[in-house]
Amino acid sequence: MGEHNWAGNSTYRAAVLHRPSTLEALRELVAGASRLRVLGSRHSFNAIPDSAELVSLDGLPADVEIDAERRQVSFGGNLRYGDLARILDEHGWALHNLASLPHISVAGAVATATHGSGDASGNLATAVAGLQVVTSGGDVVSVARGDRDFDGMVVGLGALGAVTRVTLDVEPDYQVRQRVFEGLAWEALFEHFEAIFAAGYSVSVFTRWGEQADQVWVKSRATNDAEQPRADLFGAVAATVERHPILGIDPVNCTRQRGLPGPWWDRLPHFRMGFTPSAGDELQSEYLVPRGHAVAAIRAVQGLAGLVRPLLQVSEIRTIAADRLWMSPQYGEATIGIHFTWRPEPEAVGRALLEVEAALEPFGARPHWGKIFHAGAAAVGPLYERLADFSALAERLDPRGVFRNAWLDEHVLGAS
User: Fold this and answer.
1) Do 287 and 360 touch, CB atoms closer than 8 A?
2) Are 12 and 50 in contact (CB under 8 A)?
3) Which one of 167, 273, 294, 319 is at 20 to 30 Å from 97 when CA atoms are compared?
């Protein structure tokens, strides 16, 4: 078939890609398959979506329905955040947060616990109020927040079935200001870590692991038109021109900065809705560390700067609130995310990741499910106290193992 992911580093072994146009056709396909996985927007950097056969849900209707009374929106599983945001904005509604890129599918982001940033903001999966899933028997199963299986099904890793409909919490739309501060010193980051990440609704530190920590992107809800902008952030100076997270790249495709208020959907992502990422000449890894180990974990990676910097485009450090979703890296505790955007050099990056994972292992670092990492099920499993429950749930909903694949066996479920 020759299909591959966005970055081009993973070619799927599937011989066929199905595109059913109705729910009934999907149910028939799933019930007759022996091994099948759902392919979303292809922004995973590993083999999590791969199988003998793949199915895309982009032929199913989006069918967006907004329930103003319940403050919820329901829609087809293949809808992307950018498209959903436009519809919500037209009706005066918003989501609590967005990831860096608005071009990823909602169902895929939810299934892998992809996140934005914010001390008080959970990952994107925490906005889920309900799911509709086609299981391997061709049955349609619906689950809502509060139901017995809900916390296990939301971050499902594609192992439970094909998510055909998602319901998210929404709130009245709001404006956001974004400012970039440059030249943050490592000493300032370590000494004022809590205050820096409390400086806005969503805060990101971009670093190249050099002599300085570098940029801080602060996104704040614009509740006061007369707000006086701060000139510095613990020694980092407010940028007077637009910036890109990667030094030397034209910021034309980044969302507006310099404190200019704009709609939530045009400030919370780092990149604009109208900008479609090109060939994806990068690789990505990310490790989620309990917040109590934040400074120690950052120092540990800082000690590998000589190894990391030659392979790196940029790193991003963010904070994410705790939740109760079984397979979420934030289950039971707030975390920081240490993200790496690498140059497209897979062999060298793979070697570097062995060192990064060893440095972060003492802090209980959990790898992002959709990124590149080495850790196997024996190392990852003990970090998820509800893994046995999740495995039992997968067995119950998918007794034939239709949605199971080699990647899940190697990195999550092991021999269970």
Assistant:
1) yes
2) yes
3) 294
**Total-model pTM:** 0.94
The answer to whether the beta carbons of residues 39 and 17 sit under 8 Å apart is: yes
> Minimal CA–CA distance to 125: which of 288, 328, 289?
328
- What CA–CA distance (Å, rounded) separates 309 from 175? 36
Distance between CA atoms of 229 and 175, rounded to whole angstroms?
16
Radius of gyration of the chain (CA): 21
| 296-311 pLDDT per residue, tens | 999 999 999 999 999 9
User: Buried b vs exposed e over 89-103: b needs ≥16 C-beta within 10 Å?
Assistant: beeebbbbbbbbbbb
Closest CA to 110 of 90, 129, 85, 86: 129
With contact defined as beta carbons under 8 Å apart, do 84 and 264 qualify?
no
Q: Which of these, 106, 90, 110, 23, lies nearest to 61 by C-alpha position?
A: 23
Tens digit of pLDDT for each residue in 218-227?
Answer: 999 987 665 6
